[in-house]
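Today's session is about reading a structure prediction critically. Students often jump straight to the picture, but the first step is always the sequence itself: look for stretches that repeat, for charged clusters, for runs of hydrophobic residues. Only then move on to the predicted structure, which in these notes is written as discrete structure tokens rather than atom positions. Here is the chain we will use throughout the hour.
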Amino acid sequence: MREQLSVMEKRGNTNCFSEVNFNHLLVTMKDRTYPEGTHLYWEGDVSDKLYYMKRGRAQITKSTDEGKELIMYMYQSGDMIGQADPFFGSKHTFSAEVLEDSEIGVLEHKDLEMLICQHCDFAIDFMKWMGIHHRLTQTKFRDLMLYGKPGALCSTLIRLSNSYGEPHGEHVIIHKKITHTDLSNMIGATRESVNRMLSDLRKKDAIEYDNGMIVIKDLKMLQGICHCELCPNEICRI
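Below is the predicted structure for this chain, in token form.
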């Protein structure tokens, strides 16, 4: 039973699917490989597929009118990517870039519709996935708009700790090297302002660095700055 649960826990944002319905997804999708640096889709492309990350990583980006690229989400093995309204012939509002050589299952919308028509319990699980997807988007924009750049940065650090963090006593080490440029692209700020905010957090003893990795020392302080609503980890993720 424990082994079965551990497999479920590795499914990322598809944990909402039962084992039976998840297997329906697996047998319906077509496996493809994507090399590092390629795109699953571009902003403005017709949304006619969903993508399941079997192995690898990808990031979702949004381009501003000034040409700056904003990192909206980062996905890894076990996550499903794509527009959450697949039945209206809509166009992608973001771009999806593959960050490393990846194995991805591609699910056509017409095949998804067939699954929903054939299995009502699958439809319920898919609605749960869509709900998680929308909540993740809502909380992301909340971070960016309501509490300034310091709030957005602190929220991003909390999300990174939930996605890549490992507890060490009372501290959490984020086991992923994130550059200041990456952080600036995640919150729509300049690299210089991110440098200053991180320096302030270090002076307040909220974070520190260990071999290039960010260590969160005072999670409550970060939560206070971003007015954390204590969302579950499937929502509070990068």
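Discussion point for the tutorial: Residues 138-235 form a domain with the Arc Repressor Mutant, subunit A fold (CATH 1.10.10.10).
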